[in-house]
Write a structure and sequence with these properties.
The protein is an alpha/beta fold. It has eleven helices and 20 strands. The longest helix has 13 residues. The chain is globular.
Length: 347
Amino acid sequence: MDSLACVIHAKGDLRLETQSVGEPGAGQVRVRIGAGGICGSDLHYFNAGGFGTVRLREPMVLGHEVAGTIDAVGPDVNSVRVGDRVALNPARACGVCRFCRAGAPRHCVDMKFYGSAMPWPHSQGAFRTLLLAEARQCEPLAASVSFAEGACAEPLAVALHAVAQAGELHGSRVLVTGAGPIGLMVIAAARWAGAAEIVAVDLHAPALEKALAMGAARVINAATEAEALGRDYAADKGLFDVAFECSGAPGIFRDIAPVLRPRGVLVQLGMGGELAVPANLLVGKEIRWQGAFRFDSEYALAVRLLNEGAIDVRPMITASFPLARSAEAFTAASQRSVQSKVQIVFP
């Protein structure tokens, strides 16, 4: 069968190409993709041909945030049936390396993650009309949940994993710096985890409006009220119990450290290269600085929360484009001051 795929060849060179898709083998399924969300990593490939030392070395299908319908099942597949609606976990760990055996498959040494140029050959992505996948990647999607919402399970899983790194959040005062798609998901996840108050900081008013819709109690525009954070939250050595840094801005720690209480937790999600760290405050306050990378079991949790209606991701979906207008979708998604989550709708 033929599948239409969204393939990046080089910076700005995005093409729709026909590819052949076979029948699913043992343990596999074929999925007809319904919707896919454009992630920051997809934008790096589109706008710059890669990020850091990771560069495109061959044409690659983009995309890893997808949901769709089971089109066919291979031998020995009993977990899903033709016609089932599913969200697809994009991570395919090897299952045998020391990290997989230790219960941390997100650090798998032979990870296959949709739409990644890190390995060679590249790990091809999921922005295509038909996709062969492992049955174990499929999480059933309730009839009440749209494919657009189901495609948000992946960034929600990232946020849930980050929240888990912070420890118990019930009754906590939480700061979120950066209200892009991941920051918005962190707000929703922290609220679900029982945070008593969530304050979001960003440079753009549209992003802050979305932060309020996703559960923030207060938002601060760092471009127009830069002094507000320190003025209102630095008393008594800092009033926040936990901070989630989602911007990757080089100087952001100078703003966070004074308002995070002693022995508070700083969870780092934003990746911006070299960061300036006020070591005196990190040491003096005994702040725990914790990284958060991808997810493991949180993907299944994310889909369950969507199915139960416990988290509503619809406010952050700001635009949708048909597959035929993929390049336009990527251009729109690059307008971070205006857009949150831009998605592609598949025929």
